[in-house]
Design goal:
Blueprint lengths: L7 E6 L1 H18 L5 E7 L3 H8 L6 E12 L6 E8 L8 E9 L3 H11 L5 E9 L12 E5 L5 E2 L15 E4 L5
Parallel strand pairs: 2-3, 2-5, 5-6, 6-7
Antiparallel strand pairs: 1-9, 3-4, 8-9
Helix pairs in contact: 1-2
Bound molecules: inosinic acid and magnesium ion (MG).
Inosinic acid (IMP) binds next to strand 5, helix 3 and strand 8.
């Protein structure tokens, strides 16, 4: 890696902290949906790591869907423009659906996903995110399950990237000197 590239330098959550928290979330979700089935909707790419670990801590029957969005800033608009790269939602209709996200920042991606999934008529629709960055919220969202709340810093690891790098770190670290 070039020396000029930003490098993650302070660990915010260790691998053990993350796995312990996911175990707690898995127990809560299993209890809340006891005797029911659930569809986990994974928002690629970042949430893939969280999904894989969370799913194995949930004891009720699960189905999986994978969605991917892309977003870009349009200087003529106050918000990001978001569109689907892939929008798999075969199992959503009349089922309990839980969106699994890596991080909720402005909330714009989540608003877009909620509108799409709600239109497919799920039995219930809830949100689970590993990280919540509430200080940068532009769109109010109700989060049902979250792992950790974080301050207004840019983080990488455990699925989260900077320029598609660092997703494979088993911990979450702050990336310094990164424009958001
Ligand atoms: P939102 O629409 O602003 O809530 O965007 C959420 C998306 O932005 C996440 O799914 C991430 O892909 C990305 N993102 C936001 N904050 C961070 C961060 O600190 N590190 C890495 N990706 C981030
Ligand atoms: Mg994401």
């Amino acid at each position: 890696m070039k020396k000029t590239e930003p490098y993650p330098n302070s660990v915010l959550f260790t691998e053990v902290q993350i796995q312990n928290r996911i175990r707690e979330l898995g127990k809560r979700i299993s209890k809340d949906y006891e005797n029911q089935e659930l569809v986990l909707v994974c928002v690629l790419r970042g949430a893939a790591f969280f999904l894989a670990d969370l799913a194995r801590e949930i004891s009720i029957p699960l189905r999986f869907e994978f969605l991917q969005t892309s977003s870009y800033h349009d200087s003529t608009l106050p918000s990001k423009k978001i569109q689907f790269i892939s929008s798999g939602s075969e199992y959503v209709k009349h089922r309990n659906v839980l969106i699994v996200e890596d991080i909720i920042d402005t909330g714009q991606t989540l608003k877009f996903l909620l509108e799409h999934l709600q239109a497919l008529n799920p039995k219930s629709l809830k949100i689970c995110t590993l990280l919540d960055k509430p200080h940068r919220r532009k769109v109010p969202v109700k989060i049902d399950y979250f792992g950790f709340e974080i301050p207004d810093v840019f983080v990488v690891g455990y699925g989260l990237d900077y320029a598609q790098l660092h997703r494979n770190l088993p911990y979450i670290a702050v990336l310094e000197n990164t424009p958001q």
